[in-house]
Design goal:
The protein contains 2 helices and 5 strands; from the N terminus they run βββαββα. By secondary structure, the protein is of the alpha+beta class. It has a 5-stranded mixed sheet with strand order 3-2-1-4-5, with helices on one face. The longest helix is centred in the middle third of the chain and has 10 residues.
Amino acid sequence: MNRYTKVINMMESYFTRDFEKSKKGITKTREIKEETVRKAFLKGNTEVLVILEDSDREILIDDFSSDEDIRKYLGAKFINPKR
């Protein structure tokens, strides 16, 4: 399962993904475009961990989350019209 992270703070929000380097055993975090995350989320088998920095809350959004939660934390573009 693919896992992306969305960080929301007062000034901005952005998506990240962790990549593991097999030879060195290092985990790198890189910023990812919203369009890339949206395509993967609509295909399925993807979850997004939403981190609200101001309130220190974490919410896990996946294919089975309600449309209301997806719209609230990710945006209307992430709702699958086939549901």
